[in-house]
Amino acid sequence: NYNQIALSRLPISIMGDYTIQTIRNSSESKINE
């Protein structure tokens, strides 16, 4: 079912966005220091 595939991929995309934000924030913090 397409809906099941979309729901299963949604958490992955959310985690991916969260990981990217975390990496960006940590990189900016290191640069500022």
TrEMBL record:
Keyword presence, Chloroplast: yes
Key words, A-Z: Chloroplast, Plastid
Protein name according to UniProt: NADH-plastoquinone oxidoreductase subunit I
Gene: ndhI
